[in-house]
Design goal:
The protein is built from 7 helices and 17 strands. With 292 residues, it is of the alpha/beta class. It has 2 domains: 2-112 and 226-291, FAD/NAD(P)-binding domain (3-Layer(bba) Sandwich); 127-223, FAD/NAD(P)-binding domain. The structure holds flavin-adenine dinucleotide.
Length: 292
C-alpha cells in the first residue's frame, strides 16, 4: 500500500508529487506523459514566477525534466473510481488496475466540456465514461460516442468492434477512424433522452443528411480527459461540479484532499501549484497522525 495516490499530472498533481517526494513519502502519480493539455496548449505564459513568456511546450518539457531528475514516474492509467474504506482507499483504473493507498489527492482539473442534459441523470443507465469497463454491455447495439480528444480514438475503435453502429460526435480535429459502422457527426447533441434508460441523442437539427434529429441509441459513451470528481469518488461533496475543500485542502472524506482547478477559480498555474503543495503537506501530517 502506498502513502498517497495523486490523480492528475497537471501543475497541482506535479507540485503535490514534488512535495511528497521531498517529505520522503511513497506515492503513485496518475496522468499523462504529456502532463496536461492545459500546459502544452498554452501559447505564452507570463504570470508564473521565475518564468517569463515561456511557451506551454517549453514549460511542459521543464516539468518533465524535473520529474525525471526526482525519479518521479507518471502512471499513464486513467482512474475510474476511488473507494474510501476504513483508513485506506482503493483506486481502480480503466486499464483494469487496482491500487491501495492511505490517502488520495484529487488534482484532476476541470472538464472543458460541460455535462450535457441527461448525462448525469442517465449515468449507469446507458451513459458511461469508460469504454473498457462497460463496452462489453453493448455488443451488437447502437452507440453514441462523444469524444473530446483525438488521443482517445482507440477507445472509439474498441467500441466500434463491439457495437453494430457507432455515431461518433467528434469534438476534435483530424478524425482518423475509418470503420464501416462508424458515422462521424460534427454537431453536439442538445441532450440525452430516455425514460428508464438512454433511448436517444437529441440534436437541434438533423446531425447528417441521413440521420434524424432524434437519433435512437442503446447507450452513449462520453470520452473526456476527466470525469466529474463526484462521479470518480462516491460521497464526495461538490458544488457546481467543483470539489468543496476546507482547511489544508481537505475534502469531506477523511484522507482525501483536492488541489488545483478542480477546487474552483481562479484557474491559474500558481494557484494549482500552491494548492498541490498544501495538499501534500496535509497528507504528510495526516499520515503522521495515522501512525500515532
Ligand atoms: C490554453 C490555455 C492557456 C492557459 N494559460 C495560462 C496562463 O498563462 N497562466 C495561468 O496561470 N494559467 C493559464 N491557464 C490555466 C491553467 O492551465 C490551469 O489553471 C492549470 O493547468 C490547472 O492545473 P491543474 O493541475 O489543476 O489541472 P490540469 O492542468 O487540467 O491537469 C489535470 C490533469 O489530470 C488528469 N486527469 C483528469 N482526470 C484523470 C483521471 N481520472 N485519471 C488520471 N488522470 C486524470 C488530466 O489528464 C490532466 O493531465 C491556461 C489554460 C489554457 C487551457
Amino acid at each position: 500500500m502506498t502513502d498517497c495516490i495523486i490523480i492528475g499530472s497537471g501543475l497541482a498533481g506535479i507540485s503535490a508529487a514534488l512535495t511528497l517526494k521531498a517529505n520522503g513519502k511513497n506515492f503513485l502519480l496518475f496522468g499523462k506523459k504529456q502532463l496536461s493539455d492545459k500546459i502544452v496548449k498554452a501559447e505564452s505564459i507570463r504570470n508564473y514566477p521565475g518564468l517569463f513568456n515561456v511557451s506551454g511546450q517549453a514549460f511542459c518539457e521543464a516539468l518533465q525534466s524535473q520529474l525525471k531528475k526526482e525519479e518521479i514516474e507518471i502512471k499513464t492509467e486513467k482512474v475510474s473510481g476511488v473507494y474510501a474504506m476504513k483508513e485506506k482507499f482503493t483506486v481502480t483504473t480503466q486499464e483494469g488496475g487496482m491500487y491501495e493507498s492511505a490517502s488520495v489527492i484529487l488534482a484532476c482539473g476541470v472538464e472543458s466540456v460541460k455535462p450535457i442534459e441527461g448525462e448525469i441523470e442517465f449515468l449507469g443507465r446507458g451513459v458511461s465514461y469508460c469504454a473498457t469497463c462497460d463496452g462489453f454491455l453493448y455488443k451488437n447495439k447502437k452507440l453514441g460516442v462523444i469524444c473530446t480528444n483525438g488521443e482517445m480514438e482507440h477507445e472509439v475503435e474498441y467500441l466500434a468492434e463491439l457495437a453494430s453502429e457507432v455515431y461518433l460526435v467528434a469534438l476534435y480535429k483530424n478524425v482518423t477512424i475509418k470503420k464501416d459502422n462508424v458515422t462521424v457527426i460534427k454537431k453536439m447533441p442538445r441532450k440525452i433522452v430516455g425514460e428508464k434508460r438512454v433511448e436517444s441523442m437529441s440534436f437541434a437539427s438533423a446531425p447528417t443528411e441521413t440521420l434524424p434529429a432524434d437519433l435512437p441509441i442503446d447507450g452513449v459513451f462520453i470520452l473526456k480527459d476527466s470525469a466529474p470528481p463526484s462521479v470518480l469518488v462516491g460521497g464526495l461533496e461538490t458544488e457546481n461540479g467543483l470539489v468543496k475543500v476546507g482547511v489544508g485542502m481537505a475534502t469531506n472524506i477523511v484522507g482525501c484532499y483536492a488541489a488545483g482547478d478542480c477546487t474552483g477559480r481562479p484557474y491559474q498555474y500558481t494557484k494549482a501549484a500552491g494548492e498541490g503543495n498544501i495538499a501534500a503537506h496535509s497528507v504528510t501530517e495526516y499520515l503522521r497522525n495515522l501512525q500515532k
